[in-house]
Amino acid sequence: MSKRRLTLLHTSDLHLGSDVYPTEALRGLRRVVNAARSQGVDAVLVAGDLFDSSRVTEETVGHVIQEFRELARPVFFVPGNHDDLLTGANGASRQPLSLPPNVHLFREAVGETFTSSALGLSVWGRPVYDHSPSFRPLEGLPARPSDGWFVVVAHGLVMDGQGTLDRSSPITFRELAQADCDYIALGHVHVFRDVTREGPPAFYSGAPSGTQPKTVSLVTLDPTDGVSVEPLTLA
Ligand SMILES: [Mn+2]
Questions:
Q1: How many folded domains does the chain comprise?
Q2: What residues are paired with 44 via a beta bridge?
Q3: 198 lies in a domain?
Q4: 17 and 54 in contact (C-beta within 8 Å)?
Q5: What are the phi and psi torsion angles at 103 (to 5°)?
Q6: What's the confidence (pLDDT) of residue 163?
Q7: Distance from the CA of 199 to the center of ligand 1, in angstroms?
Q8: Which end of the chain offers a freer environment for a tag, N or C, measured as fewer CB atoms within 10 Å?
Q9: Alpha-carbon distance 171 to 161, whole Å?
């Protein structure tokens, strides 16, 4: 696979089916889909908490799948701690989903890689089955594939790691610095934030709905100019 210029839209924390802001959450999905189209991105990364809980209606799930299908470009989606509908965590019954071929859902507990040879892009993700301090979202990150772009999608809390890691799904700056990839797409914190250290660019995208500024990350992977990341504020 050769490296060519790609643009990716990175989003997270849509919380569809929220009891608190159900309509606003659906508007957030619409903003994301509109932005993906208007920016003409090559692929979409969803860094967890797409759904709010296992109580999401089948209608909402069907709507989300339909929106992703109609995007007609690869969507890479790693479940976060709220996506027990998909992971079956917290005793939720896992809903059998029939996904369109452009939607790649990370299900393997130890993490897995999806590759789009058409894009020259590999994406690794490890779903949150056990939102606890012992779960490490970046644990088991494999070596970079021999060719093409390599992006990581993770849902967790970036911490300095100096004290004890007493928060759930922790990610340390050391882990970010040591990750051998081109971009780390993070979710769990609902505001756009650059957490890059010495390693690859690592960003929280912010959420596309709610009361805080509504953002996604636009990521450009360029063989000549390298990787650049900018927040896109959603109307
Ligand atoms: Mn979360």
A1: 1
A2: 9, 75
A3: yes
A4: no
A5: -105, 120
A6: 62
A7: 23
A8: C
A9: 8
pLDDT in tens, 86-137: 888 877 776 678 899 999 999 999 999 999 999 999 999 999 999 999 999 9
Q: 213 CA distance to ligand 1 centroid (A)?
A: 17
For residue 225, report the distance from its CA to the centre of ligand 1, in Å: 33
| Residue in this structure with the two tokens 């805080």, named with its chain if needed | 212
* Cβ neighbours for 34, distance < 8 A, ≥ 6 positions apart: none
Q: How far is the CA of 135 from the centre of ligand 1 (A)?
A: 13
Whole-model pTM: value is 0.96
Tell me the pLDDT tens digit for each residue of 40-95.
999 999 999 999 999 999 999 999 999 999 999 999 999 999 999 888 887 777 66
Residue 117 lies in a domain: yes
Q: Give residue 36's domain range.
A: 6-233
Q: How many A from CA of 187 to the centre of ligand 1?
A: 7
How many angstroms separate the alpha carbon of residue 11 from the centre of ligand 1? 13
- Residue 210's domain is classified under what CATH number? 3.60.21.10
Q: How far is the CA of 4 from the centre of ligand 1 (A)?
A: 32
1 domain-assigned: no
Q: From ligand 1's centre to the CA of 169, what distance in Å?
A: 9
Q: Note whether 121 and 43 are within 8 A (CB).
A: yes
Rounded CA separation 221/210 (Å): 29
Position 195 scores a pLDDT of 97
Q: Is residue 135 part of a domain?
A: yes
DSSP state of 107: -
